[in-house]
Write a structure and sequence with these properties.
Blueprint (H helix, E strand, L loop, with lengths): L2 H11 L5 H13 L3 H8 L8 H9 L4 H5 L1 E4 L2 E4 L12 H10 L8 E5 L5 H9 L4 E6 L2 H13 L6 E5 L10 E6 L12 H6 L13 H6 L3 H4 E10 L5 H10 L4 E5 L5 E6 L1
Parallel strand pairs: 3-4, 3-6, 4-5, 6-7
Antiparallel strand pairs: 1-2, 7-9, 8-9
């Protein structure tokens, strides 16, 4: 079977929202080339033997990023795996919000990423502003291990400090940019099978209304933000008003930003 035919067959058997894309990413991984190179040069090649096993893992709802061991985010490629939240394209809205805020300036000098996971937001921000440095905090040692590896692979190890911690507890100093993608799913909400079965629940759920972690994070923002700085928080699409109210209670000014799908995705606090 050719690469083209194997991809087409796999796309009929994978039951995700993006079966064709999933099949193409898995095939590119099996071939050891980029997806672009595969589409341009390898569609007529024989399909590699290992592809079928990768497809079976995807049919069992294992995330593509766990199978391939990496996920692209913003302008960087991140190593990911079991025990860390897979970076989502919607989270790029946080970096877009930060870029818009600092447009026309030298950008932030110090960044803080609360709940950094594999370093997703912090490393994307440092890639955007090469003169900046930052601190990443996470309660998971597994996630911090990925973050350390990603920082080293991207040549940012000397610009990053990674700490085990409970949100902003023990964090001192001021930051021009604070990034945070906390858990925001209510405990009664339904999740897709791949998220429910594979991704860490501690990175997803935050009490009955999904707001528990915002209630802990937002009160610390005024002491952590440098003058002229901004905090950028990811939210669930129904939580804009509630998180904005918490930001106002903390004495900061909120604004809501939508993702590419037109849904509320970010609350900024300045």
């Amino acid at each position: 079977m050719t690469v083209r035919a194997a991809i087409a067959d796999a796309a009929t058997r994978v039951t995700s929202e993006t079966p064709r894309l999933d099949a193409e990413l898995l095939m590119a991984h099996a071939l050891g080339v980029s997806r672009q190179a595969m589409l341009l040069k390898h569609l007529g090649d024989p399909a590699p033997e290992g592809f079928a096993a990768l497809v079976e893992r995807r049919i069992a709802h294992e995330p593509v990023a766990y199978i391939t061991g990496s996920r692209g985010f913003w302008t960087i490629e991140l190593a990911v795996g079991p025990g860390v939240l897979v970076p989502r394209a919607d989270s790029e809205t946080l970096i877009e919000a930060a870029v818009a805020y600092f447009a026309g300036t030298e950008g932030p000098k110090r960044a803080l990423d609360l709940g950094t996971g594999p370093g997703t937001l912090l490393l994307a921000a440092l890639a955007e502003w090469p003169e900046a440095s930052g601190v990443g905090v996470d309660a998971s040692e597994t996630a911090l291990g990925y973050a350390r590896d990603n920082a080293a692979r991207l040549g940012m190890a000397d610009r990053v400090e990674l700490r085990a911690g409970d949100w902003a507890s023990g964090i001192d100093g001021r930051f021009d940019l604070i990034l945070c993608n906390p858990p925001y799913i209510g405990t009664g909400e339904e999740l897709g099978p791949e998220v429910r079965a594979h991704e860490p629940t501690a990175a997803l759920f935050a009490g009955v209304d999904g707001l528990d972690d915002y209630r802990r994070i937002v009160p610390d923002l005024p002491r952590l933000l440098a003058p002229g700085g901004i905090a950028v928080l990811e939210i669930g699409w129904t939580q804009g008003a509630a998180v904005s109210a918490l930001v106002r209670e903390a004495g900061l000014t909120p604004a809501v930003r939508k993702d590419l799908g037109g849904r509320d995705r970010v609350v900024t606090a300045s």
